[in-house]
Each structure stands twice: as C-alpha cells, then as structure tokens.
Amino acid sequence: MNSGIEILAVVATLVGMSGASVQPHAAPVQAPQIRPQTVVKYWLEPPPAPQSGVVERGKWLFRQQGCFLCHGPEGRGGVPNRNYIKDAIPRSALAQWMKLEPEDVNPLLELLTRGVRLETLAGSPPVPQFNLVLAQYRSVQELIRRGNVAGKKDPKGPNPPLNMPRWGRSLTDADLDALIAYMLSLPPAEQK
Ligand code: HEC
Predict the structure, then answer these.
(1) Other residues' Cβ atoms within 10 Å of the Cβ of residue 188
(2) Which residues, at least 6 apart from 95, have a Cβ–Cβ distance to it below 8 Å?
(3) What is the distance between the alpha carbons of residues 75 and 60, in angstroms, rounded to a whole number?
(4) What are the pLDDT digits (tens) for 152-184?
(5) d(CA 123, ligand 1 centre) in Å
(6) For a pocket test of ligand 1, which of 70, 86, 98, 145 has the largest count of ligand atoms closer than 8 A to its C-beta?
(7) Residue 186 CB–ligand 1 contact under 6 Å
(8) What pLDDT score was predicted for residue 21?
(9) Cα(90)–Cα(70) distance, rounded to whole angstroms?
(10) Banded pLDDT at 189 (limits 50, 70, 90)
(11) For the residues of the chain, what is the DSSP string, one character each?
C-alpha cells in the first residue's frame, strides 16, 4: 500500500481548510467531522474475513485507502473543496452516476457479491441495456484508476485542493469490484 503519504496530505489539506479559508458565499454544507482517531482506527482495522463478502471488503477498502477522507464516512459527502464546481464533494450516488435503472442495482450487486466478473456476461446480459451498463462500469473503473481533476467553479479562481487521486494498479480488479459494489450498496441521496 503506497497511499499513506497521500492520505496524510489529504488530512493536512482538510485540517487547513477547516479554518480561515472557509468561503463566505459557499452553500451551507454539513462538513463531516473526521477526527484523527477515526483515521487511525480505520487504518488499523484488519481486513474482513473472506466469507463476509465483497461489500464488506469494499467498505474496508473505502476506509483503508482513505476514500472516506474526501467522500465522507459511508460516502455521505459534504467535504468542502474550495472553488470546486459543486462547492463540496457530494454524497456518493454511484448508481445515478452509472445511469443505472433503480431496479437493476440489486441484480448487479448480487452478481458482484458472488464474485462474477461483469465482463464475462456480455453474451448473456443479466439486465436490459447491459452494454450501456458495462460501459458505465468500465468508466468507473477507469476513473478510480486514472483519477480526475475537480472542475473549477470560477475559472479564474484557484484550483480546488481535492482531486480524485490516481489509484493506478495499486488496487486490483477485485478491489475495484469490491469498492464499486460497496458504493452501489450505499443509500441514495434522499435517505439519511
Ligand atoms: C483527495 C480526495 C479524494 C479521495 C481520497 C478519493 N476521491 Fe473519489 N473523487 C474525488 C473528487 C474531487 C471527485 C469528483 C471529481 C469530478 O468532479 O469529476 C471524485 C469522484 C469519484 C467518483 C465518481 C463518482 C462521483 O461520486 O463523483 C468515484 C466513483 C470515486 N471518486 C471513488 C473513489 C474511491 C473508490 C476512492 C478510494 C479508493 C476515492 N474516490 C478517493 C476526490 C477523492
């Protein structure tokens, strides 16, 4: 695991941002309180037993890799990002991002939970429009592998300090499936 330094950098950024740099005109957001004790607790958490399933592994990776530092605990979002187009990193809504029909989420989750590789199902699509689903699934994998620069709200303003990091090959395909399954299992935006 090579993300320790990056995680420290994120923590430093978040701590720095909680002070004087708060924007007076930013939309009110409920910034999550991420305490150093929580970071360390997540870090020291042992991996779940294999029989506890893919979603549990994804949850562990989400904490272990520091995804929660930007996406909030359980992907609830609310982490302020100066001059980011959305002001704060929003609640994760991966099903929406992947343009999934609500009724397709559970069948896909079930396949991922059973360790089925979605790519192998092109010949026997488990849900309608499976080609589109597969394309979206590949773009999430790509996004996590390659990272993404957070868009600026004011083009002349500073670069937002928090960008989606580039995970490259430090996460395996199975890790990505676990993270995607976990993020798909999170409640949609309306529920708290
Ligand atoms: C340093 C902050 C940071 C960390 C750590 C981080 N992300 Fe992100 N992530 C972002 C930002 C910012 C975006 C939005 C980028 C954009 O606007 O296109 C994003 C976008 C995403 C998206 C696209 C869907 C969405 O909600 O916008 C996914 C999926 C995602 N991240 C997954 C992860 C996973 C999985 C991890 C941990 C392995 C992780 N992120 C860690 C900052 C972070």
Answers:
(1) 13
(2) 102, 105, 184, 188
(3) 13
(4) 999 999 999 999 999 999 999 999 999 999 999
(5) 31
(6) 70
(7) no
(8) 44
(9) 9
(10) low
(11) ---HHHHHHHHHHHHHHTTTT--TTSPP-------HHHHHHHHHPPPPPGGG-HHHHHHHHHHHTTHHHHH-GGG---EE-TTBTTSEEPPP-HHHHTT--HHHHHHHHHHHHTT--GGGGTTS-SSTTHHHHHHHHHHHHHHHHH-BPPPBSSTTSPPPS--B---GGGS-HHHHHHHHHHHHHSPPTT--
Domain residue spans of the chain: 4-18+29-185
Please choose, from the candidates 72, 54, 176, 24, the residue with its C-alpha nearest in 3D space to the C-alpha of residue 115.
54
Q: Which residues contact 190 (CB under 8 A, 6 or more apart)?
A: none
pLDDT digit string, tens, across residues 13-33: 554 444 434 444 545 556 778
Contact 121, 133 (CB under 8 A): no
**150 in contact with ligand 1, CB cutoff 6 A:** yes
Sequence-ordered list of residues with C-beta below 8 angstroms from that of 191, at least 6 positions apart, any chain: none
Cα separation of 96 and 47, whole Å?
29
Q: Is the CB of 70 under 6 A from ligand 1?
A: yes
| Distance separating the N- and C-terminal Cα atoms of the chain | 32
| Residue whose token pair is 């999170």 | 186
Q: Whose CA is nearest to atom 5 of ligand 1?
A: 67
